[in-house]
Amino acid sequence: MTKQLTLQLLAALVPTILIEYGVLRLLMERREKVLLSSIAVNVLTNVPLNLYVLLVNDSMGDILIGEVIVILIETAWYWFFTHSIKQACIYSFLCNAVSFLIGLLVQVLYVLYLNCNYSL
């Protein structure tokens, strides 16, 4: 794996972990095993999805399908730790929706920033 690819994966993984951990805290989750497990599940789902997007196909359709698969995997993961399918669904959906939308917002702002610099 190249240094650039490693940096790209880390640039996606670290903010995702921080955002999703923050979402869980905002949802008043206090169990250490659930909070720490969110880090592990993000490594297990974020890295393969981003490798696929970076190396195979970066179409919005494939990204959305990947996100749905991640939500399903993370729902099962959180269910294992919370023993509540309702709570697992809420955690998985909200964590992934918030991190996906923040990532999208950052990309849009970056493109706007580049366009503003080119027009000056």
Shape: globular
Task: Please tally the helical runs, counting DSSP H or I stretches of 4 or more residues.
Answer: 4
Uncertain runs are: none
Strand content: under 5%
Largest sheet: none
The Cα radius of gyration reads 16 Å
Helix content: over 70%
**Main structural class:** mainly alpha
Give the end-to-end Cα distance, rounded to a whole number of Å: 38 Å
In N-to-C order, the SSE pattern is HHHH
Mean pLDDT, all residues: 93
Number of strands: 0
Explain what the structure shows.
There is one protein chain. The chain is an all-alpha fold and 120 residues long. It has helices spanning 3-26, 32-55, 60-82, 85-119. The termini are far apart.
Secondary-structure topology with pairs:
Layout: H1 3-26, H2 32-55, H3 60-82, H4 85-119
List key phrases describing it:
120 residues, 88% helix, globular
Task: Give a concise summary.
This protein is mainly α. The protein has helices at residues 3-26, 32-55, 60-82, 85-119.
